[in-house]
Amino acid sequence: MEPQGLQKTYVCLGSCQAVVTEDEYESGMTACNNESCSMKGEPLVRGKKSEVTGQNEKVEEQKEL
Ligand SMILES: [Zn+2]
Q1: Residue 53 in domain
Q2: Any domain includes 17
Q3: 38 CA distance to ligand 1 centroid (A)?
Q4: Residue 57 domain flag
Q5: Is the pTM of this model over 0.85?
């Protein structure tokens, strides 16, 4: 069980600004499929919606020790 708020999310950096959970990503939602998105078909990236700008931003993976 992961605490709320710590689940990884994946985001589209295109115009649709989609956010999917890790579960959704694992089940096959690995690329943007929004017809009107500027990055349709591009892979989603590890990231989240910034609380500062309201825009999706990439998050660097923490390196395991
Ligand atoms: Zn998109």
Answers
A1: no
A2: yes
A3: 6
A4: no
A5: no
Q: How many angstroms separate the CA atoms of 23 and 5, rounded?
A: 14
CA of 26 to the centre of ligand 1 (A): 17
- Concatenated DSSP letters of 12-62: --STT--EEEHHHHHTT--B---TT-TTTTPBPEEEEE-TTTSSEEE-PPP
Expressed in angstroms and rounded, the spacing between residue 42 Cα and the centre of ligand 1 is 8
- pLDDT (tens, 9 = 90+) of the chain, 65 residues, equals 555 556 799 999 999 999 999 999 999 999 999 999 999 999 999 999 999 999 999 998 776 66
Distance 58 CA to ligand 1 centre (A): 14
* Residue 65 located in a structural domain: no
